[in-house]
Design brief:
7-stranded mixed β-sheet, single chain, Transcription Elongation Factor S-II, Chain A, globular, Rossmann fold, 17 helices, alpha/beta, 2 domains
Length: 395
């Protein structure tokens, strides 16, 4: 699929974007050193390799090579060739972030033993009282199907605040002010789910509270609407809390190390229904290295594009997936999300809280008003959008 017309090009990690540069020069190295703190059992070789990666980001070292034949490695090497001679603070941001996490995975030898370097963070999140309370609240609804689905879509937007890689967003919690949802196109998305054909596809983002709230929505689609669901997950741990198939199976109690927390009858029943759906094929988990990689959404592999083209709706969760959809670019804020994403082969519904500068679909002048009211509104995770694009969506 071609890039959208008038594509402005990606945000970069140099001086042209302060937030992207700070992410790669400060936030990501801090995360990498946190991996060492959270995993004291790593041997000296792994500890040295991760520490060297953190230091390389800080000093803007040249992008390192990628060895081996792990999933997606050949495509990453091609992407790296297109950035020959660039450094961590002199390249496009989406590539820099995804490649930094892939370098981490290689350096902790994930492919040898399958140990998630972020599992300690995930365990802590799943064991928290806040997670248990959010799970209970999400299940507490009995309105008509269209109203209930709209409620769960809103829950999905602000569940995206609970991002273990970004404390500024997580600090806002799940309490929502009246003006926090900047774009609200839930009504049309609800009709697409209720009146459409084919499965609902969910492009997942964070494990923990966000994934739990997404699974409540998925349970509703399976149980009340009889809609089959396909969940697309990362093939390896990344961005600290991005969900993998192991995270879903662990939550459902069908992995070697199930999530342990106090559960009510209602939450146990939800988990049981989801487990049954996984067993009988109504719920399908997919993972593909594309979702870990640096390519834009219009660069979907043919096999993924073909599968997604048959969806009644593709639910695109989270900030990084939104960035992927719009090419991680600084479009005019009042540009049409539907027009920019019209390349996508199915209806595309993005649920995201803002943790980066890219934003489309605002009324003319709204961005300037937000700038005046809150200088960090694009990146602090308070506000969210529920915006519809892709095929079959009016521009």
């Amino acid at each position: 699929m071609p890039a959208p017309p008038d594509y402005p090009g990606r945000i970069r990690t140099d001086e042209t974007n302060a937030f992207a540069r700070h992410t790669m020069e400060v936030r990501v190295p801090t995360i990498l050193r946190g991996v060492l703190e959270q995993n004291p059992g790593y041997d000296a070789a792994r500890r040295t390799a991760v520490a060297e990666l953190a230091a390389a980001l800080e000093r803007d070292a040249r992008l390192p090579p990628l060895a081996g034949s792990s999933p997606g490695a050949d495509d990453l090497r091609l992407a790296l060739e297109r950035r020959a001679g660039e450094g961590w603070l002199r390249t496009d941001w989406f590539f820099a972030e995804t490649y930094a996490y892939r370098q981490l995975i290689e350096r902790v030898r994930f492919w040898d033993h399958g140990e998630d370097p972020f599992l300690p963070h995930k365990r802590e999140e799943y064991a928290s009282l806040a997670h248990a309370e959010a799970f209970e609240r999400a299940l507490d609804g009995s309105s008509a199907p269209d109203e209930r689905l709209a409620e769960l879509f809103a829950t999905g937007v602000f569940g995206n605040r609970i991002d273990l890689s970004f404390a500024a967003s997580r600090a806002h919690g799940l309490e929502v002010a009246a003006d926090d949802l900047l774009i609200d196109e839930r009504e049309r998305a609800v009709r697409l789910v209720l009146d459409g054909k084919g499965p609902l596809h969910v492009i997942a983002d964070n494990a923990g509270t966000e994934l739990t709230l997404d699974l409540v929505l998925i349970d509703f689609a399976l149980r009340a609407l009889s809609v089959p669901v396909v969940v697309h997950l990362k093939v390896h741990p990344t961005f600290v809390s991005d969900a993998t198939p192991s995270d879903v199976r662990r939550f459902l109690g069908v992995a070697e190390e199930p999530v342990t927390s106090v559960r009510s009858l209602a939450t146990r029943a939800c988990i049981a229904r989801l487990s049954d759906a996984l067993d009988d094929g109504r719920l399908v988990l997919r993972s593909h290295p594309y979702w870990n990689g640096p390519e834009s959404l219009w660069d979907l592999p043919l096999e993924l594009a073909d599968e997604l083209s048959r969806a009644r709706l593709v639910l695109l969760k989270g900030d990084a997936n939104y960035r992927r959809a719009v090419g991680d670019a600084l479009w005019p804020p009042d540009a049409s999300f539907a027009a920019v994403t019209s390349y996508f082969p199915a209806p595309l519904f993005a649920l995201r809280t803002l943790k980066s500068d890219a934003i489309l679909g605002l009324p003319a002048g709204r961005a300037e008003l937000l700038d005046a009211a809150d200088a960090s509104w694009r990146v602090n995770g308070r506000r969210g959008v529920a915006c519809l694009g892709g095929a079959l969506s009016p521009g």
